[in-house]
């Protein structure tokens, strides 16, 4: 049982420019070694550029390590900010002045709702179509 290759249906968006496939130059410059002379040339190039690679590698890894540290600090800063906000929330939530205002607000809401209902009940009895 053979399967047909999957065919993608869809369109290429207008203005889409496909990325070219870039082949590194060293693949063409350094084919398989055929002679001792080629090996010696390859080895000389390797030795010449290895020191540069080591230096660049050290610099890149040092920068990447700093980025990693900054990412950790960034996460720590966010955690501290969140912690501070939570502390403020807890403080406000238990603040007697706030609790008193919250209680008063709830009381007024219930009181006004009760009064409004009494007015509406009276208006129904009197057949008044007045909105409160």
CA radius of gyration is 38 Å
Specify the helix fraction band: over 70%
Q: What's the number of extended β-strand segments?
A: 0
Largest sheet, strands/sense/barrel: none
pLDDT < 50 runs, ≥5 residues:
none
User: Count of DSSP helices?
Assistant: 3
How are helices and strands ordered from N to C?
A: HHH
Which geometry do the CA atoms define? elongated
Cα separation of the termini: 78 Å
The helix-and-strand class reads mainly alpha
Entry summary:
With 132 residues, this protein is mainly alpha-helical.
Summarize the SSE layout with pairings:
Elements: H1 25-29, H2 36-93, H3 96-126
GO biological process, one term: bicellular tight junction assembly
Pfam families: Occludin_ELL (PF07303)
Protein name: OCEL domain-containing protein
Describe this structure in words.
Residues 24-127 form the OCEL domain. It comes from Dromaius novaehollandiae. The protein has 132 residues and is mostly helical. It contains three helices and no strands. The chain has helices at residues 25-29, 36-93, 96-126. The mean pLDDT is 89.
């Amino acid at each position: 049982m053979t399967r047909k290759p999957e065919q993608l249906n869809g369109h290429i968006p207008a203005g889409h420019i496909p990325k070219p496939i870039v082949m590194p130059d060293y693949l063409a410059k350094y084919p398989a070694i055929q002679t001792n002379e080629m090996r010696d040339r390859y080895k000389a190039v390797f030795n010449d550029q290895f020191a540069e690679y080591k230096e660049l590698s050290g610099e890149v890894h040092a920068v990447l390590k700093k980025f990693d540290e900054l990412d950790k600090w960034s996460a720590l800063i966010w955690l501290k900010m969140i912690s501070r906000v939570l502390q403020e929330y807890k403080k406000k939530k238990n603040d007697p002045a706030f609790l008193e205002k919250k209680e008063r607000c709830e009381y007024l809401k219930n009181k006004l709702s009760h009064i409004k209902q009494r007015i509406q009940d009276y208006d129904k009895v009197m057949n008044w179509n007045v909105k409160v």
